[in-house]
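Re: the request from the purification team.
They wanted to know what the chain is likely to look like in 3D before they choose a buffer screen. I agreed to run a prediction and write the result into the notebook, where they can find it.
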Amino acid sequence: MILLNKMINTDKKIIECVPNFSEGQNTDIVEKIASSVRSTQNVKLLNVEPDKDYNRTVITFAGEPLCVKEAAFKAIATASELIDMSRQKGEHPRIGATDVCPLIPVANVTKDECVRLSNELGKDVGEKLGIPVYLYEDSAMSAERRNLENIRKGEYEGLEQKLKDWIPDYGPTEYNDKVRKSGATVIGSRFFLIAYNVNLNTRNVSIANEIAKKVRESGSMIIDEAGAKKRVPGLLKCVKAIGVELNEYNITQVSLNLTNYKKTSIHKVFETIKAQAKVHGIEVTGSEVIGLVPKEALIEAGTFYTGNNSEEKLIKAAIEHLGLSQLNTFEPEKKIIENLL
């Protein structure tokens, strides 16, 4: 990743891994998965972020490529032992105990190297752990498998049929007892993604979903005057979104993935959703970053809201104007990736 490579002074090869696990309520399980990463040499555990409503935990770690691959394998193995997908419920779409495991080039590593590493990891997970593995994004074997949503369509509950329709890239092709427990896993190399949620002062999740459809790049399907289905594209490029309910806070969110924050900035997403919320007679009350965020994304937001200023003041302005501390305090030293590497 060119931006972070410039900001990190190192000759070492560094990649980041951000697996998403389908457990956010049992702290013992989350800690055991995190410990499997923490115990790996030459890997730094950067962030562990569980969510009870989503029943999902995002873990971020970075280090030398082969060591990161080892840590990812250990984490996936631990999750498959401790998480029973046949009993798992949560607000977030998922296909397995380790739902998705992306590898991101950070410093002195090419995209192609990450693609090769993702194939090696996928092969190990499939053959040694008996988990079906689908490759996505830059690692995808076909265009239809590039998009995570395509692979995850039908979620865990539809996995038995998915294995018949979409043969995994690695691992078993039959729905056996092991697969029933672990589900499948999606692995691949991709650009830095910002997981970002915008808070709405309503519990009506249908409104959150309507806003999500309006802003996400894929838009939504409608029936035209002739009775034919037609896709209407959304307002924002490189943005994926769904509406979710957060019972813990009595609100809903537009839950987003910003797949390229250089093309669609975090503040543009925030302001667009604010405008759409007004259409529905509700308000945006704040937002949150799940996992880590590049410093540049916040500096750009701070500049948008306040103009040129010192780096520290721009980051502070971004936190304030985006409402990043509404639900949980946003701590730059823990949430900005450059501060942790």
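For the purification team: The CA atoms of residues 139 and 226 lie 40 Å apart.
Please add any questions underneath this entry.
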